[in-house]
Please model this.
Amino acid sequence: MELTLNNGVTMPALGLGVFQSPPEQTTVAVEAALATGYRHIDTAAAYGNERQVGEGIHNSGLDRAEVFIETKVWVSDYGYDQTLHAWDKAAGKLGVDYLDLFILHQPAPDRFEKTIAAYKALETLLGDGRVRAIGVSNFMPHHLKQLLESTDVIPAVNQVELHPYFTQPDVQAADAGHGILTQAWSPIGGITFYPGWGEDRKNVMADATIGAIGQKHSKTPAQVMLRWHLQQGRSAIPKSTNPARIAENFDVFDFELSADELAGLDALHTGRRSGPDPDEAREERFAMVIPEA
Ligand code: NAP
Model:
């Protein structure tokens, strides 16, 4: 299933995410995904595995043009010249001469002018043909407003935390209003259950409503959530390093959720994010240095 971005570029709706995929497992995970039929990989400078993503794509034997490669600039590389150089780092590690989608990983609320300068560098890269589309991640409507006031190219994509317990209706509406595609991170709720992110979270994978819908369709909770994203027009990038789960997450094109089921999933929204608040400056994390290629 392909989605058309606001500049006419097409992108496979479902991609493989690799956040927290250890480098030594990433190459094999990417190879498994491409063998399964995925044609879209979402990585980031900050994940420390762009090189292994590139290796996996190379080992697959597919042509470069057959795989949609999305990666992200980390905050420590914000600023016009720094972000142009961030492209050199990313493309060098991935072993490619263009990126399909290059996005800012976060708004940096403590240095928003550098965020804007970074985005202007993305516009330059787009003009030069070194990227096919540009976008943002974790931008709330007020960040988008500020960005649009000072830049020329409307982001193609806004990648945000989005699963049934946190659907960000305001962000989805703002994105849609500007023709920006909403892309779900933690689309099957990883942030609601992976270890080390706070103990008072409720695991969306164990939700009874989702389980019951899955039983009706003989599908797993992850498959139900992914189908919900796709039917509502979002891109989703589930992460797994396990070949069986990588395949499971791609086996979502042979069933259809009813309008009632979609509404039932929408109704699970709690209004409470599990991941970091994009308005919080996280100095230590922001300072992480991205190595040269
Ligand atoms: P996710 O994809 O919602 O969930 C991943 C977790 O679910 C992993 O623990 C994975 O473990 C497990 N899993 C995968 N498939 C499963 C299945 N079918 N059944 C049961 N468990 C399953 O969470 P995420 O990694 O946070 O988000 C996905 C991607 O979004 C990331 O990899 C990254 O590319 C992107 N992301 C972006 C941001 C941002 O700030 N822009 C933040 C977070 C994530 P196994 O690997 O063991 O299968």
Observations:
- The mean pLDDT is 97.
- Residues 193 and 199 are 9 Å apart (CA to CA).
- The radius of gyration is 18 Å.
- Strands lie at 2-4, 10-12, 16-17, 40-42, 68-73, 99-104, 131-137, 157-161, 181-185, 235-236.
